[in-house]
Design a protein that fits this description.
The protein is α+β, with helices and mostly antiparallel strands and about 450 residues long. Helix 1 crosses helix 2, helix 3 packs across helix 8 and helix 11 packs across helix 12. The relative contact order is 0.12. It catalyses: [protein]-peptidylproline (omega=180) = [protein]-peptidylproline (omega=0). It comes from Avrilella dinanensis. Belongs to the FKBP-type PPIase family. Tig subfamily.
Length: about 450
């Protein structure tokens, strides 16, 4: 057997494997012997079928099967030994084969991963947001918590500061959902007045255009996705199912202890500080997510990554349960091109910066997650041995282990970006962040 590689260009190569009958004939003979032992052919007792008849019926098919096994094995070994960085899987080149010959030659197309450089320090327009909880937001959250833990009073008629539960429907858009909101959250006084005075069972027809200040509320109300809700202008029927007024809980020590435990918060100022800390931790995650996405988009747009396009489109036609035609493969390639580019960019960054996830990091990360979850249920003082036992059980799940590993690598990538990407720092309130990022 002989294997050679011919580079068509920097991104494509042809691997040729020359096979002789001696390379596979012993395997063919062994398979045919087993066939002979178990063959059941009319006119012959089991195991007594002549080998000549077995060969006549099965030899060519067995030979093709053994050659394919041999080719896959040797091609895989060759790619590993030569350290070839390929994209997709090798594609066999169709050709006519004389199966009566003593020598055979098979060609395989390879798509090669490109060579490229990644410049994290390049000039860019990326903004690194620092989101702060301002006084207006803190006051809103305090009032919200007071109402949340206040006394519920069910009412007959809707007033301007009531929570109402409505059944929302629009037959044409196949919308049917139950949603609770405060009348004051509706954007205009005109729309608010449509609900004020209504009682359980009454139906209000209202337009979705600009119904709430935040389109995310409309998205929740209609139970539709983010893309659909933007610019959606339809009339919906809102049938009132419940009317509740919440009397605000008094800001006293009993209230603080109920929320956070005895003596942990003793004043409204400390309550606001607690809310601020918790909110800004969540905001930091959103800001990091936005920063990472912006860096990824920048790298994909500004890193020259040439791909073996023709090969990949041909390869896409061969993978998956449903075979694709040329047009479908073209469409699939266009959808996945940027994702593939970033996979290559990320792989290079991981390799060049020697980023790796160790089993100890996975165990420690899992332990931290478990401790956080247990603390939420009041089990803050759990013994370390018990935590380790839980970690051991969790890590027997390969999917969970992979998920944790990806989380750790994402954190390493974020640190790499933070240390090297020259982004512009900008401090904003959460409302300004939403407005700048989502235009809302």
């Amino acid at each position: 057997m002989n294997i050679t590689k011919n580079n068509v260009d920097a991104l494509n190569a042809i691997v040729t494997i020359d096979v002789t009958r001696d390379d596979f004939q012993n395997n063919v003979e062994e398979v045919l012997k087993n066939y002979k032992k178990n063959a059941s052919i009319p006119g012959f007792r089991k195991g007594q079928v002549p080998m000549s008849l077995i060969k006549k019926q099965y030899e060519t098919a067995v030979m093709i099967d053994e050659i394919n096994k041999l080719l896959q094995e040797k091609l895989s070994e060759y790619i590993q030994e030569e350290k070839l960085d390929i994209l997709g899987n090798p594609l066999p080149v169709a050709k006519d084969i004389d199966w009566n010959s003593d020598t055979f030659s098979f060609d395989f197309e390879l798509g090669l991963a490109p060579e490229f450089d990644v410049d994290l320090s390049a000039k860019n327009d990326i903004v690194r947001y620092e989101i702060e909880a301002d006084e207006e937001m803190l006051n809103e959250q305090v009032e919200y918590i007071q109402k949340q833990y206040g006394k519920e009073v069910h009412k007959e008629n809707v007033d301007e500061d009531d929570d109402i539960t409505v059944k929302v429907s629009n037959e044409e858009e196949n919308i049917e959902n139950t949603y609770t909101f405060n009348v004051s959250e509706i954007r205009t006084k005109t729309n608010q007045k449509k609900f004020i005075g209504k009682k359980t069972g009454d139906t209000v027809k209202i337009s979705t255009k600009g119904l709430f200040k935040d389109d995310h509320k409309l998205m929740e109300m209609l139970n539709v996705d983010h893309d659909k809700v933007h610019g959606l202008e339809i009339d919906v029927d809102c049938t009132v199912e419940d009317i509740v007024n919440r009397e605000k809980a008094e800001l006293n020590q009993e209230f603080f202890d109920r929320l956070f435990g005895e003596g942990k918060v003793t004043s409204e100022a400390e309550l606001k500080e607690k809310i601020k800390d918790d909110a800004e931790k969540q905001f930091a995650q959103q800001a990091d997510h936005k920063f990472t996405n912006d860096v990824v988009e920048f790298l994909v747009a500004n890193t020259k990554v040439d791909l073996p396009e023709t090969f990949l489109k041909k390869w896409l036609q061969t993978v998956g349960e449903t075979k694709l035609d040329e047009q479908q493969a073209e469409e699939e390639y266009n959808k996945s091109e940027n994702g593939l580019k970033y996979q290559l960019i990320e792989g290079k960054l991981i390799k060049d910066n020697e980023l790796q996830v160790t089993i100890e990091e996975i165990k420690n990360h899992a332990a931290d997650l478990i401790k956080q979850q247990l603390a939420q249920f009041g089990q803050a003082d759990i013994a370390e041995d018990e935590v380790n036992n839980i970690v051991g059980r969790v890590l027997t799940n390969q999917e969970e282990t992979q998920r944790i590993s990806e989380q750790i690598m994402n954190e390493k990538m974020l640190k790499l970006f933070s240390d090297n990407v020259k982004a512009k720092a900008k401090k904003v309130t959460y409302k300004d962040f939403v407005k700048e990022v989502y235009g809302e």
